[in-house]
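Person: At home tonight, work slowly through the protein below, taking as long as you need, and write a paragraph about the fold.
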Amino acid sequence: MIAFEYRNYRLLWFGQLISVTGTWMQSLAQAWLVYEVLGASAFQLGLVNVLQFLPVLLFGIPSGIIADRFPKRTIMMVTQCIMMGLAATMSALVFTDVVELWMVYVIATIFGMANAVDMPTRQAFVSDLVGKDAIMNAVALNSALFNTGRIVGPAIAGILLALFGPGMLFGINAVSYIAVLAGLAMIRIAPVFNASTDSPIQRLRDGLSYVRSTPKIMRTIILVGTVGTFGMNFNVWIPVLASDSFNAGSDAYGLLFSAMGVGSLIGALSLAFSGRGPNHTRMLAGVAVMGGSEIALALVANSGAALAMGAITLALIGFSVSNAMSTANTTVQTTSDDGHRGRVMAVYMTVFAGSIPIGALISGWVTDQYGAPTSVAMGGTIVLLMALVQFRVPQRAPSTSSRISPSADARVHS
């Protein structure tokens, strides 16, 4: 756990652990509110995801310029405050019983705009907090905290949802942001000044050119975009599978999300403890297992099997996704140089998170027309085929210009 030797990273990690747990509770509450309370269709549920992630697709890459130009800690404090206010607003709307679907759409859009700036900044910030030798471990630990939240959040949310309704979960998430804000406030890091006089347009072009000219980054981003579009539409699939295929309620909905989180956590911890660096073959193997497991989930859902079988299959999906995406993230970070990392991570996160609204529309429509099992099987098949294609394509050596060195201020131990 070499990344935990860095005080600043520890502060951010523990703050995010609490906040991410609250965010997963809100994610479950939002999907349940839209699909069950407001009576929306699977397509409308998918549209909420579209509006939440579309700003990432539209503004994610330009936001990388902000991440490379201004203090990342300050940027994150602003975005976290905005998202805290949105969660509190949703809680108030639900508790006062005035919430309507269009309000969810509006708040999801504003959240997406804040997230478009926050995501690449947060990803690039990791390399400012630890040295190069700890980046893989830090990314794996970030995945572990994300998936711990995915386990704990839905497990608690499933109970609280049945007892108090979704308004309580939005409120808890609003409070949880205090933890990450406190962690950010206590971080001590020397400011990094970017003296570039290039215009924002020129810096944007330079960042995109850097990505295109670095084959290792380009291949990874293409793979991640495919996975995000076709293989990660769980906010659309799981509520419908729980309700229609497994004939279960909110407690089972939380169980399915938590099962996937357990698998993801095990995958992240296995990567963190392994001490291995990024490996392209392992990444592709994880994506291939993910696609095959989604096909298996579709078969389980269609067969009328017990809920436990669906949970086990989702745990396997979570394990493979965690391994593959952590490796992809580390590959991109360690291949990028310091001057481009913010923009490169913006491209990475834009493709990854921005592909989700596209996939949500597709999977929502397919789910409405043909059912969730068909939608899951289609996504899994495409993901599996992409992994097999990349297995067959020879990997070119990375450019010598892609070497990075750890930030001088990263090595702050305590």
Notes: Residues 397-414 have pLDDT under 50 and may be disordered. Residues 2-190+201-399 form a domain with the Growth Hormone; Chain: A; fold (CATH 1.20.1250.20). The chain has 14 helices and no strands.
